[in-house]
Specification:
Elements (H helix, E strand, L loop, with lengths): L20 E4 H9 L1 H8 L12 H20 L4 H5 L4 E3 L5 H5 L6 E5 L4 E5 L3 E5 L4 E9 L9 H20 L7 E9 L12 E9 L3 H15 L11 H19 L1
Parallel strand pairs: 1-4, 6-7
Antiparallel strand pairs: 2-5, 3-4, 5-6, 7-8
Helix pairs in contact: 1-2
Length: 256
């Protein structure tokens, strides 16, 4: 069966709509990556082709949440907190499940200047001995090299952490600048599979700085209000593909 792409009819930005426009944490990243792709997606409803979900990562994510939720009820630290000297316990709050569900709610804040409702779904929140909230994100991988936050992917993860810190602060919470990535690394050095995966767990601290978010939101609003599709980022693989594909198609038609 051929796949027919449909332009999204709902959820697009309407300049005449006075209600706050919801924008997810991932869309902030999309704007930074390529304003043209962002505009096509959020204003015109033409999103990038979707990728298949990383179902193994999702399974690890759910299991980690269950593990930390047991300790949340007991108000006891996880062994990884003890191992890395983090004096904290999982934060117990009635909205935790809501904060985790980015699709329906997440942590949300309406910026009064731009009328943009920014939201994002946290994996976990801990609270330290000073009463500060620690944003925690779960990551799963399988690699031999040392796991760090270097490179483009690490920068993206850091921005993700910073948005969650910003959102919780905007909701009136005292939030530490330091958050943590709980990284589980699938082992490849075991003798056999035996129907199960084994992981090593590490904790990576991340010091966030949220200044860029308040500076970014007016730029996003200006982009959304525009009537002309903005210029693409020259390094955007999606835009470059569209251009090359359209050029090849045009040359082919001219030959006929």
């Amino acid at each position: 069966m051929a796949y027919a792409y449909k332009v999204r009819a709902r959820g697009n930005f309407d300049p005449g709509d006075l209600k706050p426009f919801r924008i997810s944490r991932s869309k902030l990243d999309l704007f930074l990556e390529c304003p043209k792709c962002f505009y096509l997606d959020q204003r015109l409803g033409i999103g990038r082709p979707s990728t298949y979900p990383l179902t193994l990562n999702i399974a690890v994510d759910e299991l980690l949440k269950k593990e930390f939720d047991i300790l949340r009820e007991e108000q006891n630290p996880h062994e990884i907190m003890v191992k890395y000297g983090v004096n904290a316990v999982p934060f117990k709050h009635p909205d935790m499940n809501k904060w985790r569900n980015a699709m329906s709610q997440g942590v949300e804040y309406v910026d009064k200047e731009t009328n943009l409702s920014v939201r994002g779904g946290v994996d976990d929140v801990w609270i330290n001995s000073d009463g500060e909230l620690l944003v925690v994100d779960y990551k799963a991988t399988s690699k031999k090299d040392e796991i760090t936050l270097d490179g483009d992917l690490g920068a993206q993860y850091k921005r993700q952490m910073e948005v969650y810190q910003w959102l919780l602060r905007k909701n009136g919470f005292k939030v530490s600048n330091t958050g943590y990535f709980v990284y589980v690394n699938g082992r490849k050095d075991v003798a056999s599979f035996d129907g199960k995966l084994e992981f090593n767990m590490i904790l990576l601290p991340c010091v966030g700085d949220t200044f860029w978010i308040d500076e970014l939101l007016p730029k996003i609003k200006q982009c959304l209000l525009g009537e002309v599709v903005p210029k693409n980022n020259e390094t955007c693989q999606y835009c470059n593909y569209r251009f090359e594909a359209a050029s090849a198609d045009l040359k082919s038609k001219k030959k006929k």
